[in-house]
Amino acid sequence: MKTKHKMKESFGDRMVGVCCYVIFSLCALVCVYPFYYIFINTISANDLSARGVILFWPQGIHFKNYVSALQIDGLFQATFISVARTVIGTICTVGASAFLGFMFTQDVWHRKLWYRMMVATMYFNAGIIPWYLTMMNLHLTNNFWGYILPAIVSPFNVILTKTFVESVPRELQEAAEIDGAGTMMVFTRIMIPVIKPIMATVAIFSAVNQWNAFQDTLLLMTNTKLYPLQFILYQYLNQASSLKALANSSSGGSSLAAAAATAQTATSVRMTVTIIVVVPIMLVYPIFQKYFVKGIMVGAVKG
Q1: Cα–Cα distance, 225 to 139 (Å, whole number)
Q2: For residue 269, how many C-alpha atoms fall within 13 Å in the half-sphere facing its CB?
Q3: In angstroms, rounded to a whole number, what is the distance separating the alpha carbons of residues 72 and 288?
Q4: 166 Cβ partners below 8 Å, 6+ apart?
Q5: For position 154, what pLDDT does the model report?
Q6: What is the structure's pLDDT at 295?
Q7: Do the beta carbons of residue 294 and residue 197 sit within 8 Å?
Q8: CB-CB contact of 229 with 79 (8 Å)
Q9: Are 229 and 78 spatial neighbours (Cβ–Cβ below 8 Å)?
Q10: Which of 24, 118, 168, 175 falls 20 to 30 Å from 185 in CA-CA distance?
Q11: One digit per residue, pLDDT tens: the chain, 303 residues?
């Protein structure tokens, strides 16, 4: 019978392990606490929250802030726009990144020239005014596709995908070509199933960028029906003092009889809408997490 012998750790090894756990725990706390702080302030008494009393534990717990926030006009329309631009934009970006990353590994006309021209756009751009004039001439102002089309081709995502494709054994493509498969069949039948990890990684990057974007709305959109959630949050952060009255009035006569602890304040509006905007995209990451590490590591290192 074989016996397993454990190596005895020295005092120095144990101290290093303890220090690592302490440092990583502090880093995790620094990352998690802001979200926790915002959440406990949304469910605590609004008068205490406005005075900055709530720091670690909620007090006077209630959920009327969320009820009032969900009744504000335009919130559901903004949610629809955010979801639509995130889903459609992510699908288009992932598809374009996968296809271009694959094609830049094939024998196409002046492949290196097109690749270098694309990479150059990561470092040089004309600026906001020429970009706006281009978007206006393409009739993408006050147009939902103004959110989608400019973000379809991302050089960074294409580079990641191309590097991942180069790590795939060339023999797979050669075997398919011997059997008579063309370029598109190789891409759809061979490459897409193999490069799913990097596609999931690109999907995370694209979804987060699309969900968090609001500057394009600020520059391109004047139609309130095309405002996404992030732009609504941007407005709320700047106008929370006036919007607290809107949140109070939208709940009808019950708000007049409400106690000061549950009446809307500028702070409660800001924090409640922040939670509503942030939580959906936080739920996306666990779905793709199993692909993320493999995709980003293989896609970032050649060989």
Answers
A1: 17
A2: 25
A3: 32
A4: 105, 302
A5: 87
A6: 54
A7: yes
A8: yes
A9: yes
A10: 118
A11: 455 555 667 777 788 888 999 999 999 888 888 888 888 888 887 777 777 777 888 887 778 778 777 777 777 888 899 889 999 999 999 999 999 988 888 887 888 888 888 888 888 877 888 888 988 999 988 999 989 998 898 888 888 888 888 888 888 777 887 877 788 888 888 888 888 888 888 888 888 888 888 888 888 888 888 888 888 877 776 765 555 555 555 555 444 434 445 566 677 777 887 887 788 777 777 776 666 655 555 544 444
The residue length of the chain stands at 303
What DSSP assignment string belongs to 167-189?
HS-HHHHHHHHHTT--HHHIIII
DSSP the chain: -----PPPPPHHHHHHHHHHHHHHHHHHHHHHHHHHHHHHHHSS-HHHHHTT--SSS--S---HHHHHHHTSTTHHHHHHHHHHHHHHHHHHHHHHHHHHHHHTTS--TTHHHHHHHHHHTTT----HHHHHHHHHHTT-TT-THHHHGGGS--HHHHHHHHHHHHHS-HHHHHHHHHTT--HHHIIIIIIHHHTHHHHHHHHHHHHHHHHH--HHHHHH---GGG--HHHHHHHHHHHHHHHHHHHHHHTGGGGTTS-TTTS--HHHHHHHHHHHHHHHHHTTHHHHHHHHHHHHHHHHS--
Residue with tokens 């694959």: 102
Q: Which two tokens stand for residue 138?
A: 């393409």
In this structure, are residues 261 and 53 in contact, taking their beta carbons and an 8 Å threshold? no
Structure pTM?
Answer: 0.73
